[in-house]
Predict the 3D structure of the following.
Amino acid sequence: MFQPKVLGTKVIFGPCRLSYTHVFQKYSPDGDDASGKYQTNVLIPKTEKETIKALKDAIEEAKRAALVSKWGGKEPRKLQLPLSDGDEKDDETYEGHFYVNAKCSTRPGIVDRDKAPITDEEEIYSGVWAVVSVTFFGYDTNGNRGVACGLNNIMKWRDDERLGGRVSAQADFADFGDDMADEADDDML
């Protein structure tokens, strides 16, 4: 991992693995397009102490700002925080990690390591490694109070196995060569 870059409530960190990734089109679990968001979970290994500290510091900064702007000078008793323990999630991929669910209403910037824009949706998927830029902010919505994680930008770092069991068509058909196509043609005659 790189040394995280912290600018108040904004943190740039990674490379980390992405999961439940929907960054080219908005996603809404209930199918309501109006409430959909661009989003991804960002998995941070628990061994990355500097990154975890940077994220916690930025969350604390967001809490301080929200005390005045959102919560009337008093920290709410039940406060929802964005940094979650992956060991408490029923998913072995998350074991040994913390994670944040980063969301935004407008499409995040997505680039490769040369900072060239990525437009091919197949390039950014659950399982890819990326450097991410997020901003933490306080909220008070319908009685729910907490700190959320806003997704700013993503820089693809490297490919890895897809999460969720899906494999590429190339991997599925790797054993099907030209000689097999010739056999299939012969069978059809």
About this structure: The CA atoms of residues 109 and 176 lie 37 Å apart. The helical segments are 49-69, 169-172, 178-188. DSSP finds three helices and eight strands in the chain. The chain has one domain: 5-188.
